[in-house]
Amino acid sequence: MKYKIIFGLLFIFGLFLLANFKLIWFDEVYFAEITYHLMNGHGLYSQGDFLSTQGAEIVTYGPIYFYLTSFITQIGELSPFWFRLTNYLAFFGVVLVLFNQIRKHHSRKKMLYLIPFALFLGNAGFENAVSGRMEALGLLFSVIAYVLYSKNTKTLLHYILIGLCISCAYLTTPRTAILFIPFFFVILKDLFVHKNWKEVINLGFWFGIPVLAWIFFKFGGFEEYLNYYTKNTNHNTQSASMAGEFLFNGIHLSKNKIVLFSLMFISFLIPKKQTKQEKFLTINFGIISTLFLLIISDHGGHFGLVSTLIIFTIISNAMASKWKIGHLMLPAILFLNLFMFSSKFAYHILNTNRSHKPIQSMVEKHIPEGAVTVADFEFFYALREKKRDMYFFQLGKFAKERVEYFCKNTDPEYVLTSNTDPKLEYFKSHYDIETIAKYPKKQNEHQLFIDQYLRKLGSSYMTSDYSELAIFKLKRK
Asked: pTM here?
């Protein structure tokens, strides 16, 4: 009962922050636009990114996340809260599953009550959970697969479920493939050493059928599928393949990552007594996290795939430590997470220009239904409340080419962006521009504290708000 109360309070607290803790941003809106068109019967399509896709379906990711977000937003509405809810629920599921694994082996430890907070308030994990991205959903399927396989006794049904979980993870986002690199070698051992041919074949069958159906139905074959990821260019600069953006592009270490990886590596050096199941999970999660560090190009967005696994590994190793000093790693990781979370929460509370409501009011007052707009991502939800044509101002080829395309092919009536955006100049050869609305920017009495302390933490979270947004009306010359 005590743990149910703790998790209940954490869940409600997360729901309270879900809509506003993170600003509306590019990745979220890119996915929400696909969900919007899927809800309206258009498939995995994006009008906003038409310049890049030329009307083709967006099959970079699997379909599962979009069907789930479509289902949930139809229950509620297309808004930050309802769209972000899918990934948040998945993250909460990950925390529950991992906590139950620790509790199973260390139910009598006094510090067990700290673990839900350490897992839930993980810096990258929680921010990803409320971001509208899909990593937590892919991670949930992956963690369930590993936990099922870690059981001492497995039936044929376990192998089938594992295969389905891996398939669901991959069809959420192919990036989850990084999570199953060590699992591939585990399965090879199961096949050739333990001779579990029937079980492994069933696992492969239930993984392969959904994935193959997706590949052949949407791409036409393996060659086309591989070419899509290795020869297609990215959405903005058109300078690298999709796979090239994600892999082998240098190690990017933030202060938070340095601390987490250091604690994880130290936790493996501490003498400990673990069960076979604990060893299986911590070793595999440690390998996954190390591979992520070495081969994934991450500037923060993808770290949600492994950050909670790192925290679990540190805690699990610490709880099994034969040295009492090893148990101090749990308070250490909890302190780190609380410090980072409380700093972001303070910025969320103190910054007076992070409310989305003024944006909704600006759009409702100045943008009529049926209008053609070129807009920044922050305006997405407000514009999609009614039927309006919307194209992403910040996405597709290079800036000048993008604006020329909009002017010649869409004839926009409004541009919604920052009033300091230099790309507005490109419209002036075609249109007269009039500023008709500005975000009601408030002077912040806490600005000195924000600049002197919070922003020095180095997180992009601390550098953004809605204060410079404006709406411009275009009149053809």
From this structure: 0.93
